[in-house]
């Protein structure tokens, strides 16, 4: 009986030890999904280590906000409201996107753009491109 207790105790310890070891396959990647419609909220740059964000000039006054729509099938739609031709006319450009760790890459009209995901929550997507331009989207 004592041998059985020791054996089961040893098995339990091995199981707890094996369960506490895990590999971090996502290497710091946030697990919140990107899919959904994101409204353009702020744009800016970093000056002397401080973010300088403001309302984007891309958003036409009196119109809905420009947006980024990321779909489950890895397609992307970029909506742009403009009053150049008619009031708040919507132009949508489509393409594809992929996510690799904390980067998002879009290809629209043959132009590839890779951005670092700086912050991703259920309500905010903040990205920064190689030139240091920060774009903030909200849902």
UniProtKB/TrEMBL annotation:
Signal sequence segment: 1-23
Superkingdom of the organism of origin: Bacteria
Keywords carried by this UniProt record: Signal
Protein's UniProt name: Lipocalin-like protein
């Amino acid at each position: 009986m004592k041998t059985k207790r020791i054996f089961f105790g040893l098995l339990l310890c091995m199981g707890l030890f094996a369960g506490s070891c895990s590999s971090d396959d996502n290497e710091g990647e946030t697990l919140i999904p990107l899919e959904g419609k994101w409204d353009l909220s702020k744009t800016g740059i970093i000056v002397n280590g401080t973010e300088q964000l403001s309302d984007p000039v891309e958003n036409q006054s009196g119109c809905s906000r420009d947006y980024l729509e990321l779909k489950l099938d890895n397609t992307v739609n970029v909506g742009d409201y403009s009053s150049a031709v008619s009031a708040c006319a919507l132009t949508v450009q489509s393409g594809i996107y992929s996510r690799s760790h904390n980067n998002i890459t879009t290809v629209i009209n043959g132009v590839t753009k890779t951005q670092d995901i700086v912050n991703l929550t259920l309500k905010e997507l903040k990205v920064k491109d190689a030139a240091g331009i920060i774009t903030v989207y909200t849902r």
